């Protein structure tokens, strides 16, 4: 996505803080998923946390 942004909008500066925060949120989502991958059923609080973090990532992406 960063490379795509640079090629589509070369005159706009890239917000590295925003990209770093989005990456950290993604790492937390993946860690929650991998931690619970062997369980027969995903606990409800983990599922809700993953959905909440995904929505947070979308909100961060759409913020200017």
Distance between the termini: 16 Å
Residue windows where pLDDT falls under 50 for at least 5 positions: none
Classification by helices and strands: mainly alpha
- Cα-atom radius of gyration: 15 Å
What form results from the Cα inertia axes?
A: elongated
- Number of helical elements: 3
- Fraction in beta strands: under 5%
- Main sheet, how many strands, which sense, barrel? none
The topology string of helices and strands comes to HHH
Strand elements, count: 0
Helix content range: over 70%
Number of domains: 1
Overall mean pLDDT: 92
Description of the structure:
The chain is mainly alpha-helical and 64 residues long. The protein has one domain (15-62). Helix content is 72%, strand content 0%. The protein has helices spanning 2-8, 16-35, 44-62. The longest helix is centred in the middle third of the chain and has 20 residues, at 16-35. The chain is elongated, with a radius of gyration of 15 Å.
What's the helix and strand layout?
Elements: H1 2-8, H2 16-35, H3 44-62
Helix pairs in contact: 2-3
Transmembrane segments: 16-34, 46-63
Keywords: Membrane, Transmembrane, Transmembrane helix
Properties at a glance:
3 helices, 64 residues, mainly alpha, membrane, elongated
Q: What would you say about this model in short?
A:
With 64 residues, the chain is an all-alpha fold.
């Amino acid at each position: 996505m960063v490379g795509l942004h640079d090629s589509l909008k070369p005159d706009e500066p890239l917000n590295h803080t925003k990209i770093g925060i989005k990456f950290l949120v993604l790492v937390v989502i993946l860690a929650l998923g991998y931690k619970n991958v062997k369980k027969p059923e995903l606990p409800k609080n983990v599922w809700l946390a993953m959905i909440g973090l995904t929505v947070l990532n979308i909100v961060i992406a759409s913020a200017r």
